[in-house]
Amino acid sequence: MRIRTTITMKSPQASMIAEKVALSIAPDNFSGMHTKVVDGIAQISFTTQKITTLIATVDDLLMNARIAEEVVEKTDK
Q: Each residue of 12-43: b (16+ CB within 10 Å) or e?
């Protein structure tokens, strides 16, 4: 079974935060994982074959995004 997933990130404070967060974690993308940013909305898409891989990947991705968001908010003041 192939599971296709897209995570969309938007920031109510500023669209630039979503873009910076997405681009800062993009180097960790594995093969078949794509990041795009359009109009301040970031989308990360990937495909996996196991639900456990999906859960682990989403967990890692969201943790890294949260840390990146905190750094961006602190440095953009």
A: eeeeebbbbbbebbeeeeeeebebebeeeebb
Is residue 13 pLDDT above 70, yes or no?
no
Task: Tell me which residue has tokens 């873009």.
Answer: 19
Record the pTM.
0.76
Burial 47-58 (b: 16+ CB within 10 A, else e): ebeeeeebeebe
The CATH superfamily of 3-75 is Alpha-D-phosphohexomutase, C-terminal domain (3.30.310.50)
Domain regions of the chain by residue span: 3-75
Is 31's pLDDT higher than 70? yes
- Structure tokens that stand for 76 in this block: 């953009």
pLDDT for 40 beyond 80: no
